[in-house]
Amino acid sequence: MNINATLLGQAITFAVLIWFTVKFVWPPLLAAIEERRQTIADGLASADRGKHDLELAAKRAADAIREAKEKAADIVAQAEKRGQQLVEEAKQAAQAEGERQLVAAKAEIEQEAVKVREALRQRVADLAVAGAEKILRREVDAKAHASLLADIGREL
Question: How many domains does the chain have?
Answer without folding.
Answer: 1
